[in-house]
Amino acid sequence: MERYVLSVLVENHAGVLSRVSGLFSRRGYNIDSLTVGETSHPGQSRMTIVVTGDEYILEQIEKQLSKLVEVISIKHCALSETVVREMALIKVAATEANRGGIIETANIYRARIVDVGVESLVLEVTGSEDKILSLIRLLEPYGIKELVRTGLTAMGRGSGVLA
User: Which segments constitute the ACT domain (predicted)?
Assistant: First the structure.
């Protein structure tokens, strides 16, 4: 089983996200990650969808997506030709004794401290999934109070344009 990243350009109006996610659930396909945002073109949004499966499943997903009226284009993102990033916010238990270690770890990963509380720090980190997982593992001994991740976002390298 492989992971595939799809960039899907869709019309930006109510119900499109529901129809796309419903298509996956009706056919028993799981979405590993889904991010959606407006593009520079009015009335269009880009969905970055990560799925796990084989080439047959990928082909079926692409065929089903292309049947939706609101779908403008679909592109399978080859990782060698695509910049892929994720963002995470991590709230870590912080005491006077461990605060320095947390800040040092954040600096190594180029994570920003975006909130300082009496008993916690909130870090923001952007990068590859591996980078984020590595930082999470290093912060676990301090005590992660809360964690939220955006899911993958992708853009074609060089002059290439995704769907």
Answer: 5-79
pTM: 0.83
Quote the CA–CA distance of 112 and 15 in Å, as a whole number. 35
| Contact yes or no for 162/60 (Cβ under 8 A) | no
- Cβ atoms of 33 and 74 within 8 Å: the answer is no
Asked if residue 92 lies in contact with residue 101, where contact means CB atoms within 8 angstroms, the answer is no
105 Cβ partners below 8 Å, 6+ apart?
111, 135, 138, 139
For residue 55, give the H/E element and its range. Answer: helix 55-67
C-alpha span between 120 and 150 (Å, rounded): 21
CA angle 3, 45, 43 (to 5 degrees): 160
pLDDT tens, position by position, 67-114: 999 999 999 988 888 899 999 999 999 999 999 999 999 999 999 999
Distance CA 23, CA 71 (A): 12
57 pLDDT above the threshold of 80 = yes
Q: Within 10 Å of residue 8's Cβ, how many Cβ atoms?
A: 26
- pLDDT band, very low/low/confident/very high, at 162 (cuts 50, 70, 90): low
